[in-house]
Sequence to fold (81 residues):
Amino acid sequence: MSASELRRAEWLDTPFWDRLDRLESHHRRLLSEHQRAQRDLARPGSLEPGELRQAWERYCEVIAELDRATAEIETLRSCAT
Fold:
């Protein structure tokens, strides 16, 4: 048994921790995508108008997906208490 498994509460089952691990991994990936989309928007002088619009749309998509992922984690958290 790993050290991280030892620290986990015994009253929560393995499927809970598996789901939490997946959600946290997905959330970290989305945070990385958010940073990339934010950098793309920070360099508008180098983007054509159509590219700027695409960068903005991608940024909005990432924000929406990040919000959904955060809500899933919060739902899981509230069910565990």
